[in-house]
Design a protein that fits this description.
Length: about 425
């Protein structure tokens, strides 16, 4: 027997309800109307849910540690509307590389609030960051230091953090674990100590502090506490940026710590180990945006057999999380929510790995039905691709019954645009 309506609704943005016909209504917008107006697949974002989450993070951290900053790890959802919304909520912005930097600037983000990351930053990317006046550049390797020392000229000293790899392996998918020994990211603790000594002697770079990010989709507070302890051991700094990584609740059995439980654990560790006046920064991505997003698909065909395949008009072109990390997603027929028998919800792409959800209960799925997949606000937009000529879906912001596209659907002309005669 499939999940109950209440269980399913608990995975959708807060305030999602069913109308009298039993159809999902997200932020006051019926998904039937949304699909008619914007087509499918479409990534629907509940704007109030996104703002609410940003406030819980920013207010929650400030209440526990006054000198603090929340930076949105924009790789989780790098479109200008999201940058704009989260910057307007007072968040700083973390960018990985020149593309996200350019998008953030295009969205009007104050460069002083940018944190620039990357394990392989090019000269051009570093130059762009310095010229733009990026507030913090995170040193990931000694070549970053060499390059920045060449690039930074004039009176301004560029503020930097040193990223350390503390040897912590959180319980998450290997592809999104970054803090363990042997990680390609950051410097080991002994290397970090050398980088810190070198930066303290630099005339053009100003060492503001240290950075650690141990991975993503972490469902336990303990590894975060250990990460704070690891950076505390490196010495006294103005800034301790302890990264992102809190998990989202994708499925019924997931029990990630709440934002408040996570902040409690971090700040308790900070009170034990960090200097009182220091600034604490965090960089949530997934847990900030995942739960505000829902993807709508249209069923193209149902193949009855063992198993039953329900194939939709999207798939790994708009949600690569399943194929990349084996992330579990739930789903429902948007007009018949809850109950049903297990089906394999699959995409339209030419790969057997193009599975959106295995054994997901769907009630009487038929061609033409709308399928809603909740918790797609993180990394689905950013990892979207044109496999099999798929057109990347629009992003639709919904609020109080009003919907507006903030990213349009791609067209076949877009597919041709970069090809030269
Ligand atoms: C440096 C850094 N900070 C923050 C994040 C955000 O992580 P998450 O989306 O899991 O919160 C990432 C993601 O990989 C990252 O690389």
């Amino acid at each position: 027997m499939g999940a109950s309506q209440q269980e399913l609704l608990s995975l959708f943005p807060p305030g999602t309800v069913l109308d009298r016909d039993g159809t999902l209504v997200i932020a006051g917008c019926s998904v039937t109307d949304l699909a008619e107006r914007f087509g499918t697949p479409a990534l629907i974002v509940d704007e109030a849910a996104l703002r609410g989450r940003a406030r819980r993070y920013a207010d929650g951290l400030a209440a526990r540690w006054a000198n603090s900053r929340v930076a949105f790890a924009s790789k989780a959802f790098p479109c200008t509307a999201v940058y704009r919304l989260l910057a307007a909520e007072g968040l700083s912005i973390d960018v990985a590389g020149g593309g996200e930097l350019a998008l953030a600037l295009a969205a009007g983000v104050d460069p002083a609030t940018l944190v620039v990351h990357g394990n392989a930053k090019t000269d051009a990317e570093l130059a762009l960051a310095v010229q733009a006046g990026a507030g913090l550049i995170v040193i990931d390797n000694f070549d970053d230091i060499d390059r920045l020392e060449q690039l930074v000229t004039g009176d301004r000293r560029q503020s930097v953090l040193v990223r350390v790899t503390p040897g912590i392996r959180p319980d998450t998918h290997a592809a999104v674990s970054t803090g363990q020994e042997g990680s390609k990211f950051g410097l080991t603790l002994p290397q970090a100590r050398k980088a810190i000594a070198r930066l303290r002697a630099s005339d053009v770079l100003r060492l503001d502090g240290v950075h650690v990010h141990i991975g993503s989709q972490i469902l336990d507070t303990e590894p975060f506490v250990r990460a704070v302890e690891a950076v505390a051991d490196l010495g006294t700094f103005d800034v301790y940026n302890v990264g992102g990584g809190l998990g989202a609740r994708y499925t019924y059995g997931d029990t990630p710590p709440s934002v408040e439980e996570y902040l409690d654990a971090l700040v308790d560790a900070a009170r034990r180990g960090l200097p009182r006046g220091a600034r604490i920064m965090i960089e949530p991505g997934r847990s900030l945006v995942a739960e505000a997003g829902v993807t709508l698909y249209r069923v193209a065909t149902v193949k009855h057999g063992e198993p039953v395949f329900v194939a939709v008009d999207g798939g790994m072109g708009d949600n690569l999380e399943v194929a990349l990390y084996g992330q579990r997603f739930e789903a429902t027929v948007a007009t018949r929510v809850g109950g049903g028998d297990p089906c394999h919800l699959v995409g339209r792409h030419c790969e057997s790995g193009d599975l959106l959800s295995v054994d997901v209960p769907l009630r009487d799925p038929r061609p033409g039905d709308l399928i809603a997949v909740p918790v797609t606000g993180a990394y689905c937009y950013s990892l979207a691709n044109n496999y099999n000529g798929a057109l990347r879906p629009p992003v639709v912001f919904c609020r109080d019954g009003e919907a507006r596209a903030v990213v349009r659907r791609e067209t076949y002309d877009d597919l041709r645009r970069r090809d030269l005669p």
